[in-house]
Amino acid sequence: MRIVEIIEKKRDGHALSSQEIKFWIEGLTNHTVEDYQSSALLMAITLNGMNMEETTALTEAMIASGDTIDLSLIHGLKVDKHSTGGVGDKTSLVISPIVAACGGKVAKMSGRGLGHTGGTLDKLESIPGFDINLENDAFVNQVNDINVAIIGQTGNLVYADKVLYALRDVTGTVQSIPLIAASIMSKKIAGGADAIVLDVKYGEGAFMKTLDDARELARVMISIGKNLGRDVTALLTNMNQPLGFCIGNALEVKEAVETLCGHGPKDLEELCLVACGHMLVHGKQVDSYEAGYQKAKASIEDGSAYKKFLEWIARQGGDTSVFEDLGAFTHAAYTQQVYADSHGFVSDLKALELGMASLHLGAGRTKKDEDIDFKAGIILNKKVGDSVSEGELLGTLYSNEPIESRHIEEFKLAFSYTDNALETPQLIADIVS
Ligand code: URA
């Protein structure tokens, strides 16, 4: 087999065989296929697509390119949740302890933020002492003991994804549904998940700009799951505006704590309860989604979800005393309140722009492994549909570096207004499985 023939075949719009896909991924892994050849093939796939057989074969070949995690020593079904990335998305911090408090097993590997989207590991590391590097035995024991652990992805999990993602990032080939689907599903399956609940975001702040594209991505990931023996449910959710009111690491932890204590933002709470309802069905803790939703809700109301959160954070070395004073926990050297200079109803609150504004305040990174300011970020006072009078507070910016007028302008530019009242946008557009 020759890689150039495989590239030409896909360039001419033909389907590749499983053997050809395996040959490519093995070659990329053992360096007999050059990066420029993989780049050409990635572009051919982006332009000509892949059918379900090809996409499943790609996922399998990617899983085989690195380590796989054996979670068989964990008793019970391991149900993972994955979000395709957004702004203000702190759902893992809320969902994981709720599911654990309801008897489900959450053995989760998470990533760091890059660009305008945040990452669960950064949020957890804003808690002093929290350790994201557990050895495999400690990880397994922790899930068996308290039902929940979240750690960083081990170095060699799905090696091919690291190479492919870096190439896609610089060759205009990120936006390909089969490539995104194989990338996400290979990591979830190699990470040991028995079932997966996906939160597929669409809108201005997400990879998928339209609901139709999000639906197609969900369909492909569900089919991969079916072909590889994993149950998958996908929520299609709106990311035209941030989730909740807080963006930035410590600020998002604060909002997660408030949600677990029953006084978080309604959009965040609802999305978390719906995801938990499905995770509890997949984990066989309940017989129906409705029972799962109610069980999750009850765990917030009776305090068991927050108790589980504290147990989990403490078990991974985190200092839980910081949650006794959330104001001190989120204190930054500089804060800036920003007031409206127009009036009307908020018609648009651009998640992408707010993610970038938060990044420029220090909350995110533009390059891998850059240091970040855990206290930097934004608290919104207004969301889409809210009325605003001139001079009213739109939000507060947080940073440990002086806040400049460019930060304020960037924040204000995320808001658009209309004279007419509008309905609050629907957060969950559909659920497919
Ligand atoms: N998230 C991933 O893990 N991979 C992609 O390709 C896109 C989003």
Automatic annotation (TrEMBL):
For this protein, the Enzyme Commission number is 2.4.2.2
Q: Which GO terms describe its biological process?
A: pyrimidine nucleobase metabolic process; pyrimidine nucleoside metabolic process
Report the SUPFAM superfamilies cross-referenced here. Nucleoside phosphorylase/phosphoribosyltransferase catalytic domain, Nucleoside phosphorylase/phosphoribosyltransferase N-terminal domain, Pyrimidine nucleoside phosphorylase C-terminal domain
Q: Which parts of the sequence belong to the Pyrimidine nucleoside phosphorylase C-terminal domain? A: 345-418
Q: Which InterPro entries match?
A: Glycosyl_Trfase_fam3, Glycosyl_Trfase_fam3_N_dom, Glycosyl_Trfase_fam3_N_dom_sf, Nuc_phospho_transferase, PYNP-like_C_sf, PYNP_C, Pyrmidine_PPas_bac/euk, Pyrmidine_PPase_CS
Q: What class of enzyme is it?
A: transferase
Catalytically driven reaction(s): uridine + phosphate = alpha-D-ribose 1-phosphate + uracil; thymidine + phosphate = 2-deoxy-alpha-D-ribose 1-phosphate + thymine; 2'-deoxyuridine + phosphate = 2-deoxy-alpha-D-ribose 1-phosphate + uracil
Matching SMART domains: PYNP_C
Q: Which Gene3D superfamilies match?
A: Nucleoside phosphorylase/phosphoribosyltransferase catalytic domain, Pyrimidine nucleoside phosphorylase-like, C-terminal domain, Transferase, Pyrimidine Nucleoside Phosphorylase, Chain C
Listed A to Z, the keywords are: Glycosyltransferase, Transferase
Output the superkingdom of the source species. Bacteria
TM regions (residue ranges) = none
**One of the Pfam families matching this protein, by short name:** PYNP_C
What GO molecular function annotation could you give as one example from this UniProt entry? Answer: 1,4-alpha-oligoglucan phosphorylase activity
What does the subunit comment say?
Homodimer.
Which family does this protein fall into? Belongs to the thymidine/pyrimidine-nucleoside phosphorylase family.
The identity of this protein, by name, is: Pyrimidine-nucleoside phosphorylase
Q: Which organism is it from?
A: Erysipelothrix larvae
Its lineage reads:
Bacteria, Bacillati, Bacillota, Erysipelotrichia, Erysipelotrichales
Gene name tied to this protein: deoA
